[in-house]
Amino acid sequence: MAETTQQEPRSQEPRREGRGGPGGGREGRGGPHGDRREGGRPDRGGDRGGDRGRFEGPPEIDIEKLISDPLYLDNQAHGVVSRMRDMDSGTKSQLRRLYNAVRRAVRAPENERQQQFVMLRARLAYTIARHSLRSLDSLEKLLLQVTRKNDARGYERFRDLFEAIVAYNE
Predict the structure, then answer these.
(1) Which domain holds residue 165?
(2) How many domains does the chain divide into?
(3) Helices H, strands E: what count in the chain?
(4) Any idea what the Cα angle at residue 10 is, between residues 4 and 16, rounded to 5°?
(5) Residue 4 resides in a domain
(6) How far is residue 22 from each of residues 26, 35, 95, measured CA to CA in Å?
(7) Backbone φ/ψ region at 150: left (φ over 0), alpha (ψ -120 to 50), beta
(8) If we measure between CA atoms, which residue out of 72, 80, 79, 83 comes closest to residue 99?
(9) Per-residue pLDDT averaged across 66-81, rounded?
């Protein structure tokens, strides 16, 4: 009986290798995958790599500096707009819609403001993913910090930053 159990895993191994074919196994996924597919498929793989590199790209915006230093806010707005022009094809209307949502969230009653910003973060994440606006990733991270801090001044500074981004993008 011990012999039978030892033989079963051995008999399954060749089937796994044979079933996947070239590029089908876990080890061979990277290289042969690209050779096998033609046309627009390799570009799709590049997008996946972009998602993994998403957190390496734009520098993180520090909420404390944003609140205390107006020049830092201005520099960060310029940086986001520069990255948008280099990386994305986002439209001004998409930014304006998001900015209007930010303004509404800031004007919400104090007891509802955090919830409004949580939903705003979800909306921003959706817009980033839907329209491939990778340059706005740093704003999404900042929005998480602002929401966790739940400070009226932080919300206002986030709105100011977004307003500056919209203005510099015109």
Answers:
(1) 60-169
(2) 2
(3) 9, 0
(4) 135
(5) no
(6) 10, 10, 45
(7) left
(8) 80
(9) 91
Burial class (CB in 10 A: 0-12, 13-18, 19+), 98: buried
One domain for residues 74 and 156:
yes
Residue 15 within any structural domain of the chain:
no
Q: How many C-beta atoms surround the C-beta of residue 55 within 10 A?
A: 11
* CB-count exposure of residue 56 (10 Å: 0-12, 13-18, 19+): exposed
Does residue 53 carry a pLDDT above 70? no
User: Are both 88 and 126 inside the same structural domain?
Assistant: yes
| 143, 121 contact by CB (below 8 A) | yes
The answer to whether the pTM exceeds 0.85 is no
Token couple for 121: 């973060």
